[in-house]
């Protein structure tokens, strides 16, 4: 693998006669030495180069020499925005797009690095154009799903690290340097210190975004609160945790008022003592940035920072009560994030920094004045002209046409519903803004910390997780699924593993020892022996952490009814024995997991945050995405299939089977992937409710399924809801079946073989070659003939089928070592479940041979079967 650096004077290599002038590309190799000693970096950056000039003169030569998997870092911008170069911005966008596409075609990996900001304005640079170019670079990267390292944002934030940021630029007084005897005031270029600062950051981002750095350890632990219980109890709990086989502690996510009791006065005594104790007992730590709980002094001083949701302005208290778009709030958050980054770097036990806590778990939309202002700016950037917005939103319905951006309303209370596009866009605005906040927090933490950065997200919140975790090192999540709802737990394991391309850096950061709960929600505890099943499937499924919330129960606040390892008074909780068992299992599995490699499934199920958002706007009064997708997924795993739950931006290259249910808008990226997938004869199952809306949630202009309809040659599409079950004939199985709900009906087409006809002219389950289109689900999908058809065709492709087939409740994962397969089986259900072994295998727990034949797995029983 080689890294090719393309750029201008800010990236280039300099002779001694130019020092202290330096380009950030000069130091990249030394910053990446821990990744690969033999890493080759070819710095082709040329001072004075605009991207346009590079494109016409040298880009083809660069493309011609690229090898598969080479990394191409592209960092231009200043010279394209110089008045004298007179470059057309539209043309820049075109060329930029073309070049990135060519790199991807050569199977190399393009990385966009936006240029750093100048120290101050200067007359040669057209600043308006400069910012337009920055926007284009970011937009193209986002559209093409490419890594983007924003040096402009990083330099803007460097004021949190340096009192005088000019010390990083080439600013010399007369006599400071022999090379510049008369001194120099260069607002664009960096000195050695500045270039090293940028280089360090680029290297950290490459590790997080591009180089797929695995986590090589496994963690088992719990969340602790020294600020609540004091340092003595904290130490006792650490010792106790150690005795339970734990090696991991998360802390600090709500500690703000303890470490900054008065504005600007930081007290880290307690946190430092806690970290010293962790260090002493060799506990690995996830240290949090405590931004979800701004202290009272903050909301007293900045009352406008409180969030304004549908119920009105929220008061201080609880959590997440401040608007993350409020500039005062961001400023304070960034100051404390900087402090946490410094602290993280002082203790080797800190392996992770977690940003905030469960973004958007209590709040989603904010209607404050600041959000209103930023909403208009967002629309301007997204749509450029108001005519375009009107066209995409379809505002001529109900006389909603806007004459200028400032007239566009926020979707707050109205007599009836707002337009679907307005609501979707406002939600999208908030998703992108929370990611911007997270990005800036992470950039600031990285100014000092060398550890990995993560966040504890959830499938329950309205976030664009794919984008959020693209700039963090590891995907992290919380789940409190009940034992009855084990499919929801498994969906998390299979989804979060696939957030990062290497599939080996996902962290379960919060789960209960027995049940979740707060003062307004009591929850049933897990049955005996269930907890260790969760750990087993988490480890077999290649997740890297299994962490309890929380170690010692709270006696204050609202979460007293939440399960924990110890009660608030330090006695063993009812789930203590289960924790003991789980700790023993963790340490038993550890060497097996470390020596084996996870084997991904060839079956992919597409999960889409975009679809999830669309279902919050268009529910039809019946639907929500989370339960739709969880039920669909449960049907697959209960049929004994292994599934990788991937996003709609994921490559389909490694899959033999793809399911796309409920993805209402098919993005152009997914469409391209599907085109290729169909051409290589992959097994595709589309629907229900897939492809029937555009990116704003509107109906398509031509053909009811838009580009997907075009790709599949489907037309004459109608959509109707039928609340009562209706009986239809399954022509393939010669049997009848009941269907209910939202139907997508397709006019008969010669290419397509109807499996279930709606009437003479229309069908809703059809097949063409290896594609099955499903326009509605059976009333009882889990016992349906339709499911049988799908599963029987797919079971042959399932890679584990060679060893065994299993039935409802059994979750299985395959790992391998030295060419031998290890099949991990766990029955997550409360009923015994059958599996059929096709070849004899050795079972590791009991060291016994399992001959081929039928076996029952008792509820919560686990086996590790190894090829003989
Ligand atoms: Zn707001």
From TrEMBL:
Q: Which residues form the Glycoside hydrolase family 42 N-terminal domain?
A: 223-584
Pfam families on file: Glyco_hydro_42, Glyco_hydro_42M, Lipase_GDSL
| GO-annotated biological processes | carbohydrate metabolic process
Q: Name one GO molecular function term.
A: metal ion binding
Sorted UniProt keywords: Glycosidase, Hydrolase, Metal-binding, Zinc
User: What Gene3D superfamilies does UniProt report for this protein, alphabetically?
Assistant: 3.40.50.880, Glycosidases (3.20.20.80), SGNH hydrolase (3.40.50.1110)
EC number, as in UniProt: 3.2.1.23
Is Metal-binding there in the keyword field?
yes
Does the entry feature the keyword Metal-binding, yes or no? yes
Q: Which CDD domains match?
A: A4_beta-galactosidase_middle_domain (cd03143)
Reaction(s) this enzyme catalyzes, per UniProt: Hydrolysis of terminal non-reducing beta-D-galactose residues in beta-D-galactosides
Please list the coiled coil stretches: none
Pinpoint the Beta-galactosidase trimerisation domain residues.
603-714
Looking up InterPro entries in the UniProt record yields:
Beta_galactosidase_Trimer, Class_I_gatase-like, GDSL, GH, Glyco_hydro_42, Glyco_hydro_42_N, SGNH_hydro_sf
Query: Which leading EC class covers this enzyme?
Result: hydrolase
> PANTHER family of this UniProt entry?
BETA-GALACTOSIDASE GANA (PTHR36447), BETA-GALACTOSIDASE YESZ (PTHR36447:SF2)
Task: Tell me what this protein is called.
Answer: beta-galactosidase
Species annotation: Enterococcus columbae DSM 7374 = ATCC 51263
């Amino acid at each position: 693998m080689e890294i090719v650096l393309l750029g201008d004077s800010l990236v280039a290599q300099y002779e001694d006669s130019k020092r202290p002038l330096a380009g950030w590309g000069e130091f990249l190799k030394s910053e990446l030495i821990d990744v690969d000693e033999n890493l080759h970096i070819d710095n082709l950056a040329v001072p004075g180069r605009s991207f346009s000039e590079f494109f016409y003169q040298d880009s083809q030569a660069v493309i011609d020499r690229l090898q598969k998997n080479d990394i191409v870092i592209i960092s231009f911008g200043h010279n394209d925005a110089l008045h004298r170069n007179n470059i057309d911005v539209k043309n820049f966008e075109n060329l930029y797009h073309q070049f990135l596409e060519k790199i991807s075609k050569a199977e190399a990996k393009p990385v966009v690095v936006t240029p750093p900001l100048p120290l101050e304005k200067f007359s040669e640079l057209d600043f308006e154009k400069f910012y337009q170019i920055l926007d284009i670079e970011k937009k193209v990267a986002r559209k093409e799903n490419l890594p983007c390292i924003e040096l402009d944002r990083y330099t803007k934030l460097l004021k949190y690290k340096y009192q005088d940021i000019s010390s990083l630029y080439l600013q010399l007084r007369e006599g400071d340097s022999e090379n510049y005897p008369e001194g120099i005031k260069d607002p664009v270029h960096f000195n050695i210190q500045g270039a090293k600062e940028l280089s360090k950051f680029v290297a950290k981002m490459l590790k997080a975004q591009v180089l797929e750095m695995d986590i090589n350890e496994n963690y088992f632990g719990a969340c602790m609160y020294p600020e609540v219980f004091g340092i003595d109890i904290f130490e006792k709990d650490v010792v106790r945790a150690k005795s339970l086989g734990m090696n991991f502690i998360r802390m600090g996510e709500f500690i703000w008022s303890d470490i900054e009791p008065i504005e600007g006065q930081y007290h880290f005594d307690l946190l430092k003592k806690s970290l010293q104790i962790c260090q002493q007992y060799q506990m690995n730590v996830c240290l949090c940035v405590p931004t979800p709980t701004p202290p009272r002094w903050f909301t007293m001083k900045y009352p406008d920072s409180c969030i304004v949701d549908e119920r009105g302005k929220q008061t201080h208290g609880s959590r997440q009560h401040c608007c993350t778009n409020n500039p005062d709030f961001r400023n304070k958050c960034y100051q404390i994030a900087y402090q946490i980054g410094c602290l993280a770097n002082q203790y080797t036990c800190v392996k992770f920094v977690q940003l905030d806590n469960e973004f958007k778990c209590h709040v989603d939309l904010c209607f404050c004045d600041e959000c209103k202002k930023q909403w208009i700016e967002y629309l301007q950037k997204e749509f450029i002209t108001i005519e375009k917005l009107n066209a995409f939103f379809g505002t001529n319905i109900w006389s909603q046409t806007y004459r200028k951006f400032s007239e566009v309303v926020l979707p707050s209370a109205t007599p009836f519903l707002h337009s679907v596009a307005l609501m979707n866009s406002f939600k999208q605005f908030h998703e992108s803004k929370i990611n911007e906040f997270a990005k800036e927090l992470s950039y600031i933490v990285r100014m000092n910390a060398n550890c990995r950065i993560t966040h504890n997200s959830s499938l329950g919140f309205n976030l664009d997780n794919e984008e959020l975790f693209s700039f963090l090192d590891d995907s992290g999540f919380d789940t409190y699924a009940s034992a009855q709802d084990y499919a929801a737990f498994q969906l998390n394991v299979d989804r979060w593993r696939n957030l990062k391309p290497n599939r080996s850096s996902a962290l379960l950061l919060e789960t209960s020892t027995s049940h979740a709960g707060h003062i307004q929600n009591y929850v049933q505890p897990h049955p005996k022996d269930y907890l260790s099943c969760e750990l087993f499937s988490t480890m077999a499924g290649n997740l890297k952490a299994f962490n309890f919330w929380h170690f010692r129960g709270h006696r204050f606040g609202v979460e007293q009814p939440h399960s924990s390892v110890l009660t608030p008074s330090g006695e063993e909780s009812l789930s203590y024995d289960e924790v003991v068992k789980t700790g023993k299992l963790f340490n038993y599995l550890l060497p097996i997991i470390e020596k084996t490699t996870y084997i991904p499934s060839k079956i992919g199920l597409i999960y889409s945050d975009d679809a999830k958002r669309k279902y919050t706007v268009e529910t039809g009064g019946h639907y929500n995405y989370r339960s739709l997708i969880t039920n669909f997924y449960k049907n697959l795993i209960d049929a004994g299939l292994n599934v990788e739950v991937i996003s709609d931006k994921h490559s389909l290259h490694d899959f033999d089977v793809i399911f796309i249910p409920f993805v209402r808008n098919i993005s152009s990226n997914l469409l391209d992937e599907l085109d290729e997938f169909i051409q290589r004869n992959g097994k595709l199952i589309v629907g229900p409710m897939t492809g029937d809306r555009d990116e704003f949630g509107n109906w398509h202009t031509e053909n009811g399924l838009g580009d997907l309809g075009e790709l599949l040659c489907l037309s004459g599409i109608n959509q109707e809801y039928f609340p009562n079950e209706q009986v239809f004939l399954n022509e393939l199985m010669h049997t009848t079946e009941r269907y209910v709900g939202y139907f997508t009906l397709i006019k008969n087409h010669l290419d397509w073989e109807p499996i279930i006809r709606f009437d003479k002219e229309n069908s809703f389950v059809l097949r063409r070659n290896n594609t099955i289109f499903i326009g509605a689900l059976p009333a009882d999908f889990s016992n349906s003939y339709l499911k049988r058809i799908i599963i029987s065709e797919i079971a042959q492709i399932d890679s584990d089928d060679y060893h065994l087939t299993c039935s409802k409740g059994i979750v299985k994962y395959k790992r391998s070592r030295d060419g031998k397969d290890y099949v991990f089986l766990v029955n997550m259900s409360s009923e015994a479940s059958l599996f059929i072994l096709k070849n004899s295998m050795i079972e590791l727990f009991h060291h016994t041979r399992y001959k081929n034949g039928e076996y029952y797995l008792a509820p919560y029983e686990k086996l590790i079967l190894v090829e003989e």
